[in-house]
Amino acid sequence: MNMKLADPAKSKPEPNSLEEWLDVLCNEEMPIFSNTAISVHNILSDEKKGATDLASVILQDPNLTVKLLKISNSQSYNPLRHKMVTVSRAVIVIGFEIIRKLTLACSFFESILSETNKQQVNEEIARAILAAVHAKSIAIAAKDSSPEEVFIAALLKHLGSICFWSFCSEQGAHIQLIINRGNYSREDAERQVLGFELAELSACLSDAWQLGGLIEESIKLKANTPITNPRLVFIQLGYDIIEALKEGEDSKKYEDCISKVRQLTKQSRLVITENIKNNANVAYDIARQLGAVDAAILIQNSLDKLDDSDESLVVFDKKQLQFSILQDIASIISGRPDVNLLLETVLEGIHRSIGMDRTIFCVLAPDKRSLREKMSFGWCKGPLGYKVIFNISDSPMNLFFHVLSGIDAFWAKPSVNTALYTLMDINVVGKNECFMMPVFFKNTQIGLIYADRGIHKQSLTEEDFNTFKYFTQQANIGLTVFRMQLKL
Predict the structure, then answer these.
(1) Cα separations (Å) of 444 from 344, 362, 398, 411, 441?
(2) Residue 188 and residue 196: Cα distance in Å, rounded?
């Protein structure tokens, strides 16, 4: 493989130690994934946090949202083909734990694939996806309690290697040169050039990103170490099968893999070999859904399936997305009363289908002097995760008092409603155009929904306002229906 060395005059020096590589990846090259991984860990470790908090993390990144929904709508995760257009619905249908794990995987590849693709990193990604599919297939056949956990752990087992090859320059070229000469193994070449093995980088990244669980066990499993956890055996077999196929289906290594799978699953040789062949197609589809098109080509080695007409893909048209989410809302209203799911879906509909930066539902405090966050999307609240609080002031009258004085939606504009933007409001939300509307239960105001584009500062339109009003009206209609059902 020909690789052009970077011009030192045109690029910054590469990290020279394990610690430097760790710092650069976490804080410079992949800060978004670092934040996502830590946020997901915090949600898992806090009993008070759940599906809404996870959805909020996902919806902060539109690309991550789309990738996650593509996978959620795929045959692997949605065999009954119930189209899911909201993250809230995906969590309900597929389950919190699976969505949490898929969020990590999608966010990781989103960070990696934002860089210029290279041959070596695509080979690493293709290998990881194939191994993960093989491992999951074995786990399913062995009746494992959570094949999805096995899949994600196998997918991220060599994350240090994937990260390194995504962002390296001269060091990567030097390692390849040493390996191609045939004098060193990959691990020996890594130690000679870097002073450490990329497996060590994987372990350090796992600690920094608090991945934990089976992912951490898989990453920190050392070569030639006896494996006592059968789930780690599934993962190791996933990678062994890839290496065995390189030597051919008539090789001893391949037969050893087949024999191990038979012992674990009690399947026939014919079934196992058919599964291995079918797994390549599954891996191809997953690579596409993750946006790793070049890796998908390596997996399948053909372009004939690169057809974006797959019905499982999430709709992108704004009108169609609005219609689909409104159908979800109608289904919620006509079903068993679930106030949280109704409000989550309404908020997500506003946030995604209109294209808002920040969307929030706040409830009135008992003293009616403030509004306190109940659920929100897109709000950057820092590491402490504080709750947003809007103060209600009648002297001077502010935005929130004005809205709660009526029953209609309000489109606030700094150029027109200057007096309503008090200093206290500006400190919390800035001085941006925004949409607001009261929310009612039993004909009594219980809070309001607020939305703006205060991050990207894009203008709002009359069409946006009408759509906002319609979605918030659905929230009020739904709450009225629920109240009537509770009376029956």
Answers:
(1) 20, 14, 21, 22, 5
(2) 9
Q: What are phi and psi of 439, to 5 degrees?
A: -115, 135
Q: What is the pLDDT of residues 465-483, one digit of tens each?
A: 999 999 999 999 999 998 8
* pLDDT for position 377: 85
- The answer to whether 411 touches 437, Cβ cutoff 8 Å, is no
Identify which of 203, 474, 143 has the alpha carbon closest to the alpha carbon of residue 326: 474
Report the Cα 144 to chain-centroid distance in Å: 24
In tens, the pLDDT along 109-136 reads 878 775 554 778 888 999 999 999 999 9
Q: Does the fold of domain 318-487 match that of domain 18-300?
A: no
What's the topology of domain 318-487? Beta-Lactamase (3.30.450)
Token pair 């584009």: residue: 453
**196 phi/psi in degrees, rounded to 5:** -155, 165
Residue 450 three-state SS: strand
Which of 182, 209, 207 is CA-nearest to residue 38? 209
- Residue carrying structure tokens 């001077």: 396
Give the pair of three-digit tokens for residue 64: 């991550």
Q: CATH fold of 18-300, please?
A: Hypothetical protein af1432 (1.10.3210)
Report domain extents, the chain.
18-300, 318-487
pTM metric for this prediction:
0.70
**β-sheet with 389-391: strand ranges across:** 389-391, 370-377, 358-364, 444-452, 434-441, 410-412
Contact 347, 375 (CB under 8 A): yes
Largest distance between two CA atoms of the chain: 84
